[in-house]
Amino acid sequence: MRKYVFLGLSGGAGSRTFRVLTLFVLLGSAPALSQTPSAGNYVIGPQDVLAVNVFDQASLTGKFTVEADGTFSFPLVGRIKAAGLTLREFEQELKKQLADGFFKNPQVSVAVEQYRSQRVFVVGEVRQPGPVPLTGGMTLIEALSRAGSTLPSSSGEVVVVRQKDKKPIAGPTLPGEKEASEVIRVSIRTLESGELSRNVELQDGDTIFVPRAESIYVFGQVKNPGSYLIQKDTTVLQALSLAGGVTENGAMNRIRIVRLVDDKRTEMRVNERDIVKPGDTVVVPERFF
After folding, report:
1. How many CA atoms lie within 13 A of 113 on its CB side?
2. What is the pLDDT of residues 200-210, one digit of tens each?
3. If 13 and its partner were Cys, which of 31, 202, 229, 235 is the partner (CB 3.0–4.6 Å)?
4. What CATH number does the domain located at 44-114 have?
5. Helix extents (H) in 76-168
6. Average pLDDT rounded to a whole number, residues 215-240
7. Which value, to the nearest 10 degrees, does the dihedral of the CA atoms of residues 53, 54, 59, 61 take?
8. pLDDT, tens digit, for every residue of 116-148?
9. What's the rounded Cα separation, in Å, for the pair 274 and 12?
10. pTM over 0.90
C-alpha cells in the first residue's frame, strides 16, 4: 500500500489560501491508476544500491552497489550486468545464472535499497527546490511532496518539462530552453478535484517547474485595497474576495477593470464572473445613493 500525503497547496496571498490537499492512493484498488507501472519496471542504473535476496541462501543475500560500468560482483556468478535492465529482468537473469550449475530453481527477489542513478529536478515556488531521486513509479504529487510542497506564492499550475531525446542532462530545464522538450501543464486545482489521471508519472531527467503567481490591483470601495497574487482563471468576484470584499458603499453594478492592451491604457466594464488578467486594476466605484 502506498500513501500519498500532499500538504500545503496554496494559492494567492494575504488572507486567501487554498485548502490542504491530502491524497490517499491505494495501489491495486484505485481504477484511475490501474495503468501505473509497478516498481518492478524501474530501470537499474549506476550507483543504485540493490537488495538481493536468494531464498534459504544467507550467504547470497545482501546489498550490492551497481558500479559505473553497470555491473557488480555477485558470489558464485562473478561480474553481472544490472544497469539498463528492469528489476524483474535482472531477477530473471540472476536466477538463470544461479540455476546454471549451482541451484535447482533458485528463488530470487531484487529491490532497490537506494535510488541513486536517476533523478528529477523540482524548481520554482516550492519549499525545498533541487534534485529529487527518482523511485520506481514516482508521480508528480510525490515529487512535489518530497520538495516540501508548493509555496503560497505559487501560480496554481505545475509545468513538467521532459527531454524527448532522452539524453542525460546536467541540471534542470525550464520551459522554452530546448526545442527537443515536451511540456506538460497540470493545474493544482485539477489534482485537488481528484483527477488523478493528471498525476503525471515522471521520467529520469524531468524538470518540475512551479511558476510564481502574478499580481493584480484592487482599489476603490473594498475593505483592503492593494496588490494581490492571483492564480489562473481568477474571477472578478474572487479578486474582490482577496481584498476583503466590497464595502457597503460599493457599486457592484459598475465595477471596471483598467488594463494595458498593446501598451495602451484601456477601461472596461465587467461583471463578477469575468476573468482578471495579471497586471489588471480592479476598481469598485462608490454608489450614487
Report:
1. 13
2. 999 889 999 99
3. 229
4. 3.30.1950.10
5. 87-99, 140-146
6. 94
7. -10
8. 899 999 999 999 999 999 887 889 999 999 999
9. 18
10. no
